[in-house]
Amino acid sequence: MEKKLAFLGPHGTFSEEAARALTAGQRFQHLPYPSIIDVISAVAEGKVDYGVVPIENTIEGTVNSALDWLIHEVDLPILAELALPISQHLLIARREEPLQLSSIQRILSHPHAIAQCHNFIREHLPQATIEYTNSTAKAAQIVSEHPEEAWAAIGTRLNPEIYPLSFAAQEIQDYSNNYTRFLLIGTEPLDMPLCPKEKTTILVTMPEDFPGALYQVLAAFAWRKINLSKIESRPTKKGLGSYYFVIDIEQKMDDVLLPGAFAEIEALGCQVRQLGTYPSYLYKTT
Questions:
Q1: Does residue 240 form part of some domain?
Q2: Which of 195-199, 210-214, 231-235, 280-284 has the lowest mean pLDDT?
Q3: Pair 249, 124 in one domain
Q4: Which terminal residue of the chain, N or C, has fewer Cβ atoms less than 10 Å from its own Cβ?
Q5: pLDDT per position as a tens digit, 62-87
Q6: Is 17 exposed, middle or buried (0-12, 13-18, 19+ CB in 10 A)?
Q7: Lowest mean pLDDT among 30-34, 95-99, 197-201
């Protein structure tokens, strides 16, 4: 039976590209959803089997809506991650007379895509107003449906293959080393290709009024020589100054080292919740 996988739509988003890369060679029905929260909720409610959501970008950092929903609203394990290279392009509707950059009045795109292209916008499109959309593909779709308007979208290289659009400018992101991490989430394990890199992500809740607690948490990993690739605080939403710590560990769950570290952390009065242990893939362009 063909399984269902949700991604941030409509068709032509980086999320769809990541979804297809993560499930290459497997039979899936790929279904677009209008927002990141809708994707996660569809998996949690059993409407689809799996979902793919962006979680972090090289330039803009964490996608807070995705991380917070996974922490506060659902209990879905991370099954895999993919680092996808991101290139942004300025797209305009196809017309007899191409729209000049100086004539563009409005730029539409996802907030992260806009943020990744600030320098280009300031230099070449200072006259344009900015309108945020739920995805880059949604922006492309809107612009393509209004060819009479002096609008442009920031989107992917795939968008002109799906919508009647043309490139007004290509590779407009501020930094060339631009990657986005996407997470594959789901309630059931999925057979994934072998990967030399594995990660484990945990959520640590600190006890209140415990000076030096974070230092001691990190020490539990340090003396065991366990490498951490990321530490991030997110509000518990229970009061000012109350935070969770999300920690990415650069190894898969084992029977000795990580359980020992977690037990030591819990002995401090902290709570440890595993968000997943999973392969970490890097997308390679051909």
A1: yes
A2: 210-214
A3: no
A4: C
A5: 888 999 999 999 999 999 999 999 89
A6: buried
A7: 95-99
Same domain, 133 and 26: no
Residue 193 falls inside a structural domain: no
Residue closest to 50 by CA, chosen among 190, 193, 194, 199: 190
92: amino acid identity, one letter: I
The tokens of 11 are what?
């068709």
Nearest to 144 by CA among 86, 93, 91: 93
Q: What range defines the domain where residue 259 resides?
A: 198-282
Beta strands in the chain (DSSP E): 3-8, 28-33, 50-57, 61-62, 78-85, 89-93, 106-109, 129-132, 151-155, 165-169, 179-186, 198-205, 228-235, 243-249, 271-282
When pLDDT is cut at 50, 70 and 90, the band that residue 242 belongs to is confident
Q: Does the residue 94 lie in any domain?
A: yes
Tokens coding 84 = 């996808």
